[in-house]
## 1
Amino acid sequence: MTQPSRLAIVPFVSVDHMMKLVLTIGVERFLTELAGYIEEDFRRWELFDKTPRIASHSHDGVIELMPTSDGKMYGFKYVNGHPKNMREGRQTVTAFGVLADVGSGYPMLLSEMTILTALRTAATSALAAKYLAPKGSQAMAIIGNGAQSEFQAIAFKALTGIDRLRLYDIDRSASEKCARNLAGKGFDITICQTGQDAVEGVDIITTVTADKQYATILTDNMVGSGVHINAVGGDCPGKTELHRDILLRSDIFVEFPPQTRIEGEIQQLDADHPVTELWQVISGQAQGRKAPEQITLFDSVGFATEDFSALRYVRDQLKATGLYEELDLLADPDEPRDLFGMLLRAGLQPAA
Ligand SMILES: NC(=O)c1ccc[n+]([C@@H]2O[C@H](COP(=O)([O-])OP(=O)(O)OC[C@H]3O[C@@H](n4cnc5c(N)ncnc54)[C@H](O)[C@@H]3O)[C@@H](O)[C@H]2O)c1
């Protein structure tokens, strides 16, 4: 078999390499640096091509494509959301993504993004909290203790200094798993019997449950003044976590309004209900938290620029770490117009 040319090769980051990359860099440092890339891209928000993600809904879940470009690079992520998967031994969310050169259209990176999505979601949540949560926040409730939960906890510790966690999940074994995974990582952890118990005395409430319905993970009476809510699990039409009354008492911050109005908690509100875009807060054009008694809500659904930032970050780590493989992805005939000739010549090669 002939060796593929350099132009045929695209770096590929497998799940194994992603895990090694995260562990080599260290989870906290990875999340902090990744948040820096996400923040940097939010600051140049206006430069990006933006569109709500393209969703294909079915009875049990959704498959989505999330494209964006900064004019130099183009990125997209394929991601699914299937809450029933967990009961069948599969992930609720899996993903992979591509970064490409706008000039040539050639892919520059293909990467697993199941782990990377958990990291980028947590980094974005913690970044938003840096601007919105009460100063000196220490305690956070995490309701829903599945695949995303530990990433959320560690990102909040790294970026906002959270060191007390109150965990609640309808399945106690999920909370026990979360507490076990976070043991020795500098948290004081309490497993709670109810959601109401979990939110007792906390500064930040993270909801990150998976259910394909209008759920009410938080009722109005559970949310006291001055709290920051990081609502992560409601991210699809017909899939929300908060009672509508909470939204009416909160100042709401979103990623990209045209997408969040379809997918976020605010799908429960009128289409013109006022929201603030996170990029405006990050770039200093809008105020984040204004007063101690204010309830701030980050209505997270996950936006394409965050995946773009994550792919950009991973690509920047490859040279120093070598944690990727070379994928023979692009056909590269000696003469660009002789694609068919390349195919014919391959037939003449002796079998390997
Ligand atoms: N906003 C974003 O950017 C973003 C990114 C990734 C995932 N998500 C969403 O986050 C959610 C969680 O994802 P995951 O990968 O951790 O899923 P998961 O299936 O691994 O975990 C979900 C957990 O929620 C628990 N749960 C379900 N209903 C509950 C309830 N009423 N009260 C308390 N706990 C409950 C389940 O028992 C499970 O342990 C999903 O809805 C997913 O779509 C959002």
## 2
Amino acid sequence: MSGITFFSTKNLEKIKEFYTKKIDMDLWLDQGGCIILKHGNMLLGFCEGAEIDKGGTITFFYEDKKKVDQMYIKFKDSARSEPKENEKFHIYNFFAEDVEGRTIEFQTFLHPIKPYLGGEELLRGRRSVRDFKDKEVPEEILSKIFEACRFSPTSRNAQGYYFIPICDREVIKFMASRRGGSSKPIQEAPMAVAVCCDPEETLRPIQDGCIAAYHFILTAWAYGLGTCWIAAMDREDVKEKLGIPKDHYVATVTPLGYPQKIPKTPLRKPKESFIKKEL
Ligand SMILES: Cc1cc2nc3c(=O)[nH]c(=O)nc-3n(C[C@H](O)[C@H](O)[C@H](O)COP(=O)(O)O)c2cc1C
């Protein structure tokens, strides 16, 4: 289920310019007398009318304090105060006004939150993370991620994949040292997860294991957690350390934790280069 919150405006053009240019909202739909704007999971509608709806507060939330500070620089003139921590709600926020005097708020949550990203944002926004905050992954978040990983597709629905959470620092250090710089990100995280697959349960252990690993990576991102695929961990020393049978497939051992910062998107090829013409 989805929804839109509508407000009445006396100046649709000005509102459109404000929310798209200053707040970077996307114009999701232009219906003529009404526009619908999108910011993450938020759909906000404005319709031309005789009155200006000013009730309530339109709150935009961001993944970290830095983004809130960046918005403060943009809104310094109309901000009612500098951004600060609100202990009661465990948020970091400030209030300002839009061009018609509505209250707008910019904030970040200072505690883990449930997933809110739409599909496209999740697919486009996920990054490989190699620097992590010194903050444990809560048990209940981990459990929710594994719950969602039940829905990874597998060959003939075999479901032969499994996860090994690794929290022991000595084991983490061992994993991080397997492949030099390539496996170093494991060292930077509070924990790691090995994604494996049992060939006795499926005819396609490599495909099932890799897809389950990507499913895990995407789900973790939806919960605000960073991962990084570490390649070539299907090795004897890794298996021996983790007690994995020799014939099982280790798709990856990924670090898992809250990103220190969200990395910039590495350059991507245009979609035309992925779509080959029929011969
Ligand atoms: C099969 C595979 C192997 C990878 N191996 C490593 C690795 O060993 N170490 C590492 O730091 N990143 C590794 N990565 C992450 C890639 O470098 C990363 O996905 C790529 O640069 C694109 O960045 P993005 O994931 O942020 O979009 C791997 C990714 C994939 C899919």
## 3
Amino acid sequence: MGAPNIEQLRDRVAGVVITPDDEGYDDARAVYNAMIDKRPAAVVRPTSVADVAVAVDHAREAGIDLAIRGGGHGVPGFGTCDGGVVIDLSTMRTVAVDPSARTARANGGATWGDFNDATAAHGLATTGGIISTTGVAGLTLGGGIGYLARGHGLSIDNLESAEVVTADGRTATASAREHEDLFWALRGGGGNFGVVTSLEFRLQPVQEIYGGPMFFELEDARAVLEWYRSFIADAPEEFGGFPAYQIAPPLPFIPEERHGDTFIAFVACWSGPIEQGESMLKPIHDVAPVVAEHVGAMPYAALNAAFDGLVPPGLQHYWKANFVTELTDDIIDAHLRHGPDVPVVNSTVHIYPINGAVHRVGATETAFAHRQANFATVVAGMWPDPAQNEANIKWVRDYSEATAPLSEEAGYINFMAGDDQSRIRANYGPNYDRLVEVKRTYDPDNLFHLNQNIAP
Ligand SMILES: Cc1cc2nc3c(=O)[nH]c(=O)nc-3n(C[C@H](O)[C@H](O)[C@H](O)COP(=O)(O)OP(=O)(O)OC[C@H]3O[C@@H](n4cnc5c(N)ncnc54)[C@H](O)[C@@H]3O)c2cc1C
């Protein structure tokens, strides 16, 4: 591998170029997952699409690795690299809303917090993640699962167009009318096809929601999971939410003597008429006594930021994920065995529903293939102390080994760990071969290979 010509890069880029000799280098090279310890030769913080193109050209011409960073949340740490160039889009975060057209254009480094704050000002939203610090681009390019998915589809199902700097340094607009093959591939194919400098979304009228977290005793976990399985199958599509194994954090709504205890939680989000919220959440309240809850009417953007404190930057991350078509008794048994062992307050297991509107898009209409799955499960190991790596990774692996054989072979690309590259074909299923074709068109030399890679 060559080396970047830093002087030339600095000359040509209007934004900042940070190298190992510069103050702030350690911050600039870090990603969210503190287990990743890589040392790029240069971190470029662009201020424009032209800067991005310069960095892409530079990496290609020098024959060096190129990493793309949006929100930096990717668990495998593909947003940094050793010896190459990182394009850190955190300097390009503007979100422009057109309330009359009900669309929003987010720059490639915007987070869901940036996005939700901008759209909430107009009573609008689209499907995004459940944590506000996650990047809009990285989350969307993998699919985009969140509270609004049952009603409005995945984030990609609301994507109207994207502006992309491709491997040749040119800018392309991908939409249903231009570069249709690229637009298809971007909707699930991750960062394989170029640097996405902006994404345009359709918005829906969503302002206040009714919901929040509820904590139930572990002995009621079977009842909660069985209720979830049957209720969510045909619940009104405005009902989003998911069960989770969760250690109680020290929050005021949880009795102090229960802080640190493990619960089965349910996080609900009713985005229909607010006055129906209480009755919509009655069935879950009837399942078992609620030990603690923080449920009520709140802005959608507030629910999206409610759990940020549990996942600060700098934790160690190791995750495993599978799609699930039927939440069988056997899978529920596996959850009942492993969920209660959740080791630390930051770690969790989420079983997201991906039915409803997600199923109204065909398996081959976008690169995200698993439209028949009803759930996306993630065992998300997140812990502060590297000395606990072995114990935490073991919990994630044991849990996953118990549930994976009962699930689909594939998992959601955005919940994959760094050691999941061998699952790439299964993760794209019937769409894999077409993705390879698009990759050959837009990135034949695999410049964008730091991702769950679709090799040309
Ligand atoms: C705490 C936490 C909560 C999460 N919650 C959810 C959730 O609710 N729903 C959900 O669907 N997923 C969720 N995820 C998973 C998330 O979708 C992925 O980690 C995603 O990759 C994060 O995107 P990012 O931009 O923040 O990360 P980054 O690490 O910056 O990017 C990850 C990869 O995405 C690609 N990428 C990012 N930006 C661009 C760009 N502008 N152009 C081209 N490629 C790009 C690159 O390949 C990059 O390596 C969560 C992850 C974490 C850590």
